[in-house]
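Entry 14. Structure prediction run on the chain below.
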Amino acid sequence: MKLLCFSDIHNNARAIDSLVERSAHVDIVIGAGDFCLTHEGLENTIAQLSAINKPAVFVAGNSETGEELAAACQPWPHFHVLHGNATTIDGVTFYGVGGGIPVTPFGSWSWDFTEQQARALLENCPPHAVLVTHSPPKGCLDITSRGLSVGSEVIREVICAKQPQLEVCGHIHESSGQLSWINSTPVINAGPTGLEYDLIAP
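Output returned:
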């Protein structure tokens, strides 16, 4: 199964056009949040992405809420918006949690969750699923331009406990387009350019 993973497109029409074109050559598209900029332009971005005619799994970032993303995607039933729940496509289970985890320093516009809230949202993640989160796990693709490690302890705990086939995230632009590992789980910070990944079932 070939995946096209992206994040943090922030209304970038050129990046979206490229993703739409590349989606013709994959099986499933994964969007790991921050489709718009501080809640502005989401509907236009999703409408542009609607040219993707493959199944897609999306989580909200901290720039849009899960409710806003679900409403924008409602006309396109092949777009699956996840937040503390799962969907299964072609025999592969995807589990998603959106938002900034832990709480960001950006203020009230940012859609954020504490680590305690994230633990509740992630508790039903099944073993060996494809995990999609906006925020990265602690200590993996989470270093800011100021050298700070700002990833989520709980996301890392879940990866270690549930051993997902793949973790797709975004949020930290400095790590976009990179792949790393936590134990046997590959971790992709997808970025707006997008990364293709061949998923081989365990």
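Helices lie at 13-23, 42-49, 66-73, 115-122, 153-162.
Filed with the rest of this week's runs.
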